[in-house]
């Protein structure tokens, strides 16, 4: 499994994403032109901002994975 740090490095290499300090103040974040997309809080914990469409697309896998928590009503 890819660690959060490896994922941050891979995603940060994309031209449309920039690594920055997160609005929550903990860890690092990835930002696109419009908003923060991910917060990397530790080597194993990441908060992702997903659209409703993407949550629906991955719904089965997201809900049944013991490693993933969906927070009702949260944008993260």
Question: What do these coordinates show?
Answer:
The structure is a single chain. The chain has 76 residues and is of the alpha+beta class. The protein has helices at 4-12, 52-57, 59-64, and strands spanning 18-20, 28-31, 36-40, 46-48. It has one domain (4-63). A four-stranded antiparallel beta sheet has the order 1-2-3-4, covered by helices on one side. The longest helix has 9 residues, at 4-12. It is globular. The model has no long low-confidence stretch (mean pLDDT 82).
List the helices and strands and how they pair.
Elements: H1 4-12, E1 18-20, E2 28-31, E3 36-40, E4 46-48, H2 52-57, H3 59-64
Antiparallel strand pairs: 1-2, 2-3, 3-4
Pick out its properties.
4-stranded antiparallel β-sheet, 76 residues, 3 helices, alpha+beta, 20% strand
Q: Outline of this structure?
A:
The protein has 76 residues and is α+β, with helices and mostly antiparallel strands. Helices cover 28% and strands 20% of the residues.
State the total count of DSSP E strands: 4
Q: Could you say which overall geometry the principal axes of the C-alpha atoms support? A: globular
N/C terminus separation? 22 Å
Proportion of helical residues: 25-40%
Low-confidence stretches: none
